[in-house]
Amino acid sequence: MKKAKIPKNECQRLENLLSYNILDTPPESDFDELTRFIAEICDVPYAIISLLDDKRQWFKSRVGISVAETSKEISFCSHAILQDDFFQVTNALDDERFFDNPLVTDGPKIMFYAAFPLISDEGFRLGTFCVLDRQPRKLNSFQINSLKVVSHQVMSQIELRKTNQSLKKMYKAVKDTNDHVMSRERMATLGEMAAGLAHEINNPLGVISLLSAEIRQLVAKNEVDKNQINTACEKVEDLVLRIGKIIKSFKTVARKPDLDPLSKDNLMNILEDTLSISSDKIKNQGVKIHLEGDFDKSVMCRSGELVQVFLNLLFNALDANEGLKDSWVKFSVSDQPEFIVLSVTDSGLGIDIKEVSEIMNPFYTTKPIGKGLGLGLGISKKIVEQHKGRLQLDLKSKNTKFDVFLPKINISQGEKNVETSRPHC
Prior knowledge:
The chain has 425 residues and is α+β, with helices and mostly antiparallel strands. The chain folds into 2 domains: 148 residues, Beta-Lactamase, CATH 3.30.450.40; 162 residues, Heat Shock Protein 90. Helices cover 45% and strands 18% of the residues. The protein has 12 helices and 13 strands. The chain has a 6-stranded antiparallel β-sheet. Strand 5 and strand 6 form a beta hairpin. Helix 5 packs parallel to helix 7, helix 6 packs antiparallel against helix 7 and helix 8 packs across helix 10. The longest helix has 41 residues. It starts with 9 loop residues before the first helix and ends in a 5-residue tail after the last helix.
């Protein structure tokens, strides 16, 4: 038996794995459904979501395996995490690394193994999503692609789980501090987004399941058509990309970046994140979204905070126009000598002149009791001012319109950003 090499970044990899707080946690249906799904697609008796710590491989989800972990020393997965992509052993008895492995000679007598590494956002290989069999075999191209696509979904679920844990810790940390009241408004917004997020993810997962059922029927009838399979794979890949984009957008606004330095980001990226994590609310209310102007402009910002600002303006617009026929919200961008102005206009007929001087004060709200603390605009105003800009209501507009003024990037800022900016999360 040939032992796997220890990754050069093993200490950092283990530290990254522990940050997810997932080891030795109970089974979760989100993971178990994906494991059962891939076992059916690959027609294997065993499928595992495996995570490797310093001495063992632990199974977050498993099909056909009764034990919850095995020694890392004898694991196939310890070899698989050394790869950047697909890893397959078609016949373990013919492979010098595994022919005398106890998992091959005794116990389950594994002959076949195939896996994709589970790679974290930070680039560490935490474990694998693998399928196994007691017979020598080889996955076909459709099965390999399916395993790849679903392994990405497994990692997305792990990242989402970590994000949700971070949100819970954030709420607990501020619960008894002076910032508690201000944080409640932000957490309420995140909670509303999280509810829609589950729906946005479950829908494409349902489509993936239907596609797999359709393919299984074609296989059973011996009516397999290469073009049909390729088309189905393309649809699955598009759905996984959509899920990944939604999760990435949610992570951007969920993190608390107030201590991060300003970095260069594109307004279209910020707007896409805003619309991505509010798409469920927009769809349910039947609101039309209009874009006007050139959004391909960059600003120095903390993107997560600006997404929070535009989400607040968007949610206020949606709440104010709820139930109205033919309601709409328009995002527009314009230039001024020193500022880029991004405006949010809705189909409402404006704000009562008596309320104009009060709406951005803390705790002032026109919403019904239980619909908010009246802190959203106050927080948004503070965020924009921290960006050296300003947030104001356009009193000349016949509809409700808020303008966000953000300073243009000068040459020195752009040059500095090349050296100091952080990757967009």
